[in-house]
């Protein structure tokens, strides 16, 4: 838009700083990074943001040339003293404006320039700008109103959103109403229009930038949550895979050691089985780290039979696996078999182990020591997390045979948030 040429205070026409003036003055603000409590978690700055912080102040400085509108009348004022006061005030206004928006509170947050400044510092700076703006009227007359555009820009950038809007509206309304109160002030429509357009532009710019920052922070948080979830998945997989495999390997190795002299051929066979189990465990670990490890219910039941036999525990397992089970349920049941059988072999000292399978429930029980008081170990905690994701719940308690009972139940009414828990007063849990 066209900028009205500078004129003397005796003229009735009023200068218009222009929307481009104020908006462009605000456009330099990526070079600043106002501090704010919400910016404590800074984002990684882009090269563009870094360039704005280094050179953006030059753009802000260029648009301060429009402060010549009040500066020249102040210099030409016949009253040297009042003119000098206004000149000093206008120059101080320019320096404070540039410093507060282009240099102050620099941070590495690429969106910092669009954030509210620290309230006390922002209001103090704004009050100082208002005082300097008022002093400029002493020698520049009504031409000092050209500073209103810069006041609106600063308010919308540095102050709380509502306060900035109220101040901008107040400046616009003041420019429109003032000539009716005192006709000698002349026409201030140009200043009112410039302030309104600049305020609208800066409001949109800051709203967009703050929205972009909120989106960037949300994306960063989602990425962090994804990392945490992946770490949890890997931890669960490694615990379940290695816990079961190493338990069976240990039992096989102990059995082979006892058979070395009594039955060397069988001892060799057991050690060959240890080698196979070790290779399988290594392959499972690699698959888990690659992210595509899936447990097979049939495979886990076969492995359970082998592990229980190696531990000298009589296994009572289902003859077949229900093919109608949903994939998610089959997988969580498979992990439950692996975890439950590992606990039976490690902790129960049982003679018998039962695995019962229905379309909605898997139950593993034994006649061993039974539950022990204490909190759930990482194995049952991980199993509970898997069950929750599949819409199932995990419960633990004492079995009818006096041993330990682990149940995984699929129920449409459950929210899947049930953690491993006791079912009787003397119950407990095993890791």
Describe this structure in words.
The protein has 431 residues and is α+β, with helices and mostly antiparallel strands. It is built from twelve helices and five strands. It has helices spanning 19-27, 47-63, 68-76, 80-103, 119-140, 147-158, 161-181, 189-262, 264-290, 297-310, 327-348, 378-389; strands spanning 314-316, 352-358, 361-366, 392-398, 404-410.
Topology:
Elements: H1 19-27, H2 47-63, H3 68-76, H4 80-103, H5 119-140, H6 147-158, H7 161-181, H8 189-262, H9 264-290, H10 297-310, E1 314-316, H11 327-348, E2 352-358, E3 361-366, H12 378-389, E4 392-398, E5 404-410
Parallel strand pairs: 1-2
Antiparallel strand pairs: 2-3, 3-5, 4-5
Helix pairs in contact: 1-2, 1-6, 1-8, 2-4, 3-4, 3-5, 4-5, 5-6, 6-7, 6-8, 7-8, 8-9, 8-11, 8-12, 10-11, 11-12
Instruction: Give the CA-based shape.
Output: rod-shaped
Across the major sheet, the strand order is 1-2-3-5-4
- Overall number of domains: 2
> What's the average pLDDT?
75
Category from helices, strands and their pairing:
alpha+beta
Report Rg. Answer: 38 Å
- The helix-strand sequence is HHHHHHHHHHEHEEHEE
Record keyword descriptors for this entry:
kinase, signal, 7% strand, 5-stranded mixed beta sheet, 2 domains, single chain, HATPase_C_sf, phosphorelay sensor kinase activity, alpha+beta, Sig_transdc_His_kin_sub3_dim/P
């Amino acid at each position: 838009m066209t900028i009205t040429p500078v004129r003397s205070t005796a003229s009735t026409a009023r200068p218009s700083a222009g929307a481009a003036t104020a908006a462009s003055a605000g456009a330099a603000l990526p070079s600043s990074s106002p501090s704010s409590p919400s910016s404590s978690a800074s984002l990684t700055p882009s090269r563009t943001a870094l360039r704005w912080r280094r050179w953006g102040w030059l753009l802000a400085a260029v648009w301060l040339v429009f402060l010549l509108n009040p500066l020249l009348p102040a210099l030409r004022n016949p009253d040297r003293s009042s003119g000098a006061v206004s000149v000093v005030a206008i120059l101080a206004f320019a320096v404070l404006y540039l410093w507060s928006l282009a240099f102050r509170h620099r941070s590495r947050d690429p969106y910092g320039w669009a954030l509210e400044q620290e309230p006390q510092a922002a209001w103090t700076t704004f009050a100082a700008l208002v005082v300097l703006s008022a002093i400029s009227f002493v020698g520049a007359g009504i031409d000092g109103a050209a500073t209103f555009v810069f006041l609106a820009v600063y308010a919308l950038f540095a102050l709380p959103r509502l306060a900035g809007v109220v101040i901008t509206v107040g400046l616009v309304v003041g420019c429109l109403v003032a000539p009716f109160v005192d006709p000698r002030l002349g026409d201030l429509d140009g200043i009112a229009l410039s302030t309104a357009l600049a305020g609208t532009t800066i409001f949109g710019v800051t709203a967009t930038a703050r929205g972009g920052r909120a989106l960037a922070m949300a994306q960063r948080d989602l990425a962090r949550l994804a990392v945490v979830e992946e770490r949890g998945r890997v931890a669960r997989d490694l615990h379940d895979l290695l816990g079961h495999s190493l338990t069976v390997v240990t039992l096989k190795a102990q059995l082979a050691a006892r058979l070395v002299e009594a039955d060397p051929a069988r001892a060799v066979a057991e050690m060959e089985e240890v080698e196979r189990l070790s290779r399988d465990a290594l392959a499972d670990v690699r698959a888990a780290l690659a992210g595509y490890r899936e447990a097979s219910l049939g495979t886990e039941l076969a492995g359970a039979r082998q592990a229980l036999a190696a531990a000298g525990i009589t296994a009572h397992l289902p003859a077949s696996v229900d093919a109608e089970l949903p994939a998610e349920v089959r997988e969580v049941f498979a992990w439950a078999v692996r975890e439950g059988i590992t606990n039976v072999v490690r902790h129960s000292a049982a003679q018998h182990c039962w695995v019962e399978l229905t379309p909605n429930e898997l139950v593993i029980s034994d006649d061993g020591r039974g539950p022990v008081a204490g909190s759930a170990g990482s194995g049952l905690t991980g199993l509970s997390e898997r069950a929750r994701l599949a819409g199932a719940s995990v419960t633990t308690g004492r079995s009818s045979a006096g041993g330990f009972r682990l149940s995984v139940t699929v129920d449409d009414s459950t929210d899947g948030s049930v953690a491993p828990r006791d079912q009787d007063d003397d119950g407990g849990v095993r890791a």
